[in-house]
Write a structure and sequence with these properties.
The protein is mainly alpha-helical. It has 6 helices and no strands. The protein has one domain: Nucleotidyltransferases  domain 2 (Four Helix Bundle (Hemerythrin (Met), subunit A)), CATH 1.20.120.
């Protein structure tokens, strides 16, 4: 697989996850909305990492850290609110992975939170698509 094919793999997976987040939103599964939003952005950023740096994507779920590694190569400044979303989404991944946190997070994520995270994720997702070199 060449670099472009690897990027396309990550992109297709991220698009699938974003569609899954929407399906979870429509079905009222709030915790899974935010988890799938996290997955969608993480995979989109990993695809960009491949395009900007190399195909040895670090095994991390810290979206901000991944993004920061190639940010200097971008031709535009990154809005702070996007880094805030990266951090917010990363926290949903970490907590969602451990059974004892699942119930706690579930109690914190209501319809309004899920809708807000989904809306912000859609915005950042579309912006990330514009960053392809």
């Amino acid at each position: 697989m060449d670099t472009q094919e690897k990027y396309e793999y990550w992109l297709e997976s991220s698009e699938y996850d974003l569609a899954t987040a929407k399906a979870m939103l429509d079905s009222g599964r709030w915790l899974y909305v935010v988890f799938m939003c996290q997955q969608a952005i993480e995979k989109n950023v990993k695809g960009l990492y491949i395009l900007y740096l190399d195909d040895n994507v670090p095994r991390t779920h810290n979206i901000g850290k991944l993004f920061h590694s190639f940010e200097a190569q971008l031709s535009e400044d990154v809005p702070e609110k996007y880094y805030q979303l990266f951090d917010r989404l990363t926290s949903f991944y970490l907590q969602g992975r451990y059974t004892e946190y699942k119930q706690k997070v579930s109690a914190l994520v209501d319809r309004q939170e899920a809708e807000t995270v989904y809306s912000q994720t859609e915005e950042v997702f579309q912006w990330l698509l514009t960053l392809r070199p």
